[in-house]
Amino acid sequence: TPEWISSQPHGDCGGGREGVCYAPRDVSADGGGSDAAFAGFVRALVEHNRQLDPDTHALIKFWGVWNEPHAKLFWRGTVPQLVRMTKDAQEIIKNADPGALVLTPEPASNSKHGNYGIAGDWLNEYLLAGGGRYVDVVAFHIYANNNDRHPVAEDVVRMVENVKSKIARHPEIRGKPLWMTEGSWGKSDETNWEDADQAFAFLLRYEVLLASEGIERAYWYSWDAPTGTLFANGNELPQAAAYRTVHDWLVGRRVQKCSSRSHLWSCALEGTHFKGSILWNDEYQKTATVDANGFASFVEAGHERAPIDQKGRLSIGNKPVLLETSASDDTSPHQQTDSAWSLSRLLLAFDPATKR
């Protein structure tokens, strides 16, 4: 919020610029008032976007109302104020572009200090205040970050399930897509991994689990920032290659509900003329031997397809392995079009400061 319209222009924002985390002064705590300043800003931005040449510019199609409103660094207003601002933004955006999508404000859950339920709790409060009627997408952030030792990708399930259980109480948003619009392992210098293979394994498991939970879009944060780093010192890091594996394995296929037993995870994978299973062991730097009889071949993440030997035994570690019923079926998954996954749904955050 600009200082000139902030209700607390010199208010503390937890290390951010003074006043920016407070509501505009023309919106009362209960959501009343004119909301003219915010509406004017949205109207100007929407009009600018509408006039851009689509041949030379990427037009905005998805509009997020507010970033991480649970965090005092970003928001110290009330939930009714954000509902009112969403309502006004939605009307302006839809009048200019009926096909545009409006997202809920995007709270974040994270593993660190056990903050698994933040996103679900905040969204529940927002929907109770009536915000669901003004949005097309339920959006949130998921950070499976360092919790004393190292990041655990499987924490994704607990955080997403919490969101789903809380929003299920609100029939007005039933059927609306769930988007994870920001997330990763968190600060890269706090990961405590011994090698890039662990980062590679995390990213792949993180994306597979999001897909299994029905998340339609997943935005990794970020390419070359200190958080979720995949690019540094002018070079792509080895863990960035996990994105290519995710593409090869998931695009054109559906990941069914994942389950775990004695640290061994299994996710069914289905596509046109394809059935397989993605397996991994979640114990850090540990392996497990599994019976792979009934499968024709396997693909270890980052490696070529290989046949399963006559004994049918495989050693499974932290890097997922794809077991295939037939090595010849569905070898070009990216050409399938009947799936919940598409390449456009696997995205990296763009850093405007570096133009990457």
Spatial order of the strands forming the largest sheet: 9-10-11-16-13-14
Q: How much helix, percentage-wise, in residues?
A: 10-25%
Give the SSE order as H and E letters. HEHEEHEHEHEEEHEEEEEEEEE
Unreliable residue stretches: 327-348
What is the overall pLDDT average?
Answer: 91
Gyration radius, to the nearest Å? 22 Å
Shape: elongated
Structural class: alpha/beta
DSSP strand tally = 17
Largest sheet, in brief, is: 6 strands, antiparallel
Helical segment count:
6
Instruction: Assess the beta-strand content as a share of residues.
Output: 15-25%
What's the end-to-end separation, in Å?
27 Å
Please tell me about this protein's structure.
With 356 residues, the chain is of the alpha/beta class. 24% of the residues lie in helices and 22% in strands. It has helices spanning 36-51, 79-96, 118-128, 155-167, 196-212, 242-250; strands at residues 62-64, 101-103, 108-110, 138-143, 178-184, 217-220, 231-232, 235-236, 253-261, 264-271, 274-281, 288-291, 297-300, 305-307, 313-316, 321-324, 346-348. It has a 6-stranded antiparallel beta sheet with strand order 9-10-11-16-13-14, covered by helices on one side. A 5-stranded parallel beta sheet has the order 3-4-5-6-17. Strands 1-2 form a two-stranded parallel sheet. Strand 4 (138-143), helix 4 (155-167) and strand 5 (178-184) form a beta-alpha-beta unit. The protein starts with 35 loop residues before the first helix and ends in an 8-residue tail after the last strand. 40% of the residues are buried.
